[in-house]
Here is the input.
Amino acid sequence: MYAISLGDDGAELRPVEPWQAGEFLAHMDRGREFIGQHNGLPDVVTDLESSRAFLRTYAERTAADTGRLYGIWSDGKLVGGFLLRRLDFEQGIAEAGCWLEPAAVGRGLVTRAARVVIDWAVEERGIHRVEWWVSTGNAPSIAVARRLGMTKDGVLRESFLYRGKRYDEEIWSVLAPEWRAAKQAS
Here is the structure.
């Protein structure tokens, strides 16, 4: 299996596959309450079979070239994830998402993972627009969008029904020319 270094601290980005369902479930259990504040994944991955099914869905999306799922590992332990929920090559659009368990917060892991995956999507796959959909109350995720140089496109009022309550969602994006210009400037 391949791993992409995320820096000097030993953090890595790797694919997460169905055979790792037990490890993925253990990761979700460690962060269930924290991750579930803004992300429905803990409600989907509740036992070994649902973990395997979720990972199988992304294995199928990878095979169909319509999505990708990567794990973020720190010190050999799965601590988070970064995904492309949607890859639409005809339109040139990708939608990114992420999560971390509490012990991994504040180390820039999501931002570093996002840079690797977004760069791949733009430079290798020709994606023109990468979107970041986020609950308006998710300040850490909004901060990541800003660090990535994304622009806030707007707010979809009460567009996200989660655990019986409606939430506003912000849509952030970065276009390929903006991504390339920011890389050259740094």
Observations:
- The chain has a mean pLDDT of 95.
- The CA atoms of residues 19 and 45 lie 15 Å apart.
- The beta strands are 4-5, 12-15, 68-74, 77-88, 93-100, 129-135, 151-162, 165-175.
- DSSP finds six helices and eight strands in the chain.
